[in-house]
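#help-structures

NK: newbie question. if I give both the sequence and a SMILES, will the prediction place the ligand too? trying with pyridoxal-5'-phosphate
OV: yes, paste both and it writes out the complex. here, I ran yours:
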Amino acid sequence: MTMRNIPFARPWITDEEKQAVLKVLDGYTLTHGPQCKEFEQRFSEFLGQGANSVTVSSCMAALHLAYLHLDIGKGDDVIVPAQTHTATVHAVEWVGARPVFVDCDLSTGNINVESIEEAITSRTKAISVVHFLGIPCNMPEIMSIADKYNLKVVEDCAIALGARYGGKHVGLFGDVGCFSFYPVKHITTAEGGMFVTKHHDVIDIVSKLREFGVDRIYTERTIPGMYDVVMLGTNYRMSELQAAIGIQQIRKIKDILDRRQKNFNQLKRILLDLDGILIIDSNDANATSSHYCLSIVLQGALQRYRNDIVLELNRAGVGTSVYYPQPVPRMSYYKKKYGYDATRFRNAEQISDCSIALPVGPHISSEDIDYISNVLKNILRKR
Ligand SMILES: *Cc1c(COP(=O)(O)O)cnc(C)c1O
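OV: that's the protein plus ligand as structure tokens.
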């Protein structure tokens, strides 16, 4: 086998993105401009009917704005997945609410739906979910629990652009969907995110929260420089340069998703023959995954060799990652604040401690997939 060098992820940047950025620079409008508006429109169009989008500086910003505008804070509990990116939970902390962690299912990594209902108390105000590795949660079930207890729902869709349940795009079931355009995600604007909601009437307040809480934005002022501040906002704006990249990226999304699906399916087909690994995926007929990566969870005797196997893969030129490196409640900050009971997060722990995320992005060819699976097979054979 000739050695290959396959990064875990690589932003797909072409001349179109470069030209778009140069054009914005030539026009001098670097913020508050038409690029953000167009990106929001195109993004909503891709998601489908009912989507309203607001560009923001990151997914973390979108998550923070979600709790701010829902008026969730001190004295409130929010149910959160233990197996997620820390941003999902940090947003709850930032508004002063208390995160209540729930374990995931081992086969999908998604929050365990029965455990959500068990965790609800009179303090619970919202449920937060993450669509793990692009696998959509069973949103109809989660929404019926939310309706039953009158709870808000915040969907972290950072790695789920293109994921649908029953044909409906994730982020449109709950009150808010939060997307990320960090470089390794499905599309990128370098840094950036999107706040999405099915409630058209909150767009105005969220836009203001995103811009210091001013009553009228720059383009709405009759006398330049004159405005009032009506609420405690912050600056979570996206720039025109980022939005210009985003417009070009969202135009490619169907192609990106097709390539990811093809790579995922090819890799999965080969790996199904291997003993001692579990492939994180969904077998729900209503679920359309957006195939963020292919994570294998090592089983039995292989489990303790996860880090060694990762290093061997990397040495052979196969880029990997771990989603996510620890259950959030086990991260030092949360462990110190709330204590950690390992028995409650067995599945999240197994995914954090025994999984390896393999690349399936649009930068990967069919030959790359063969190479990745051959390398992995050879490594596992020796164990
Ligand atoms: C990457 C990621 C985030 C953070 O996104 P940023 O745009 O970097 O703030 C949030 N949630 C999940 C699930 C992620 O994977």
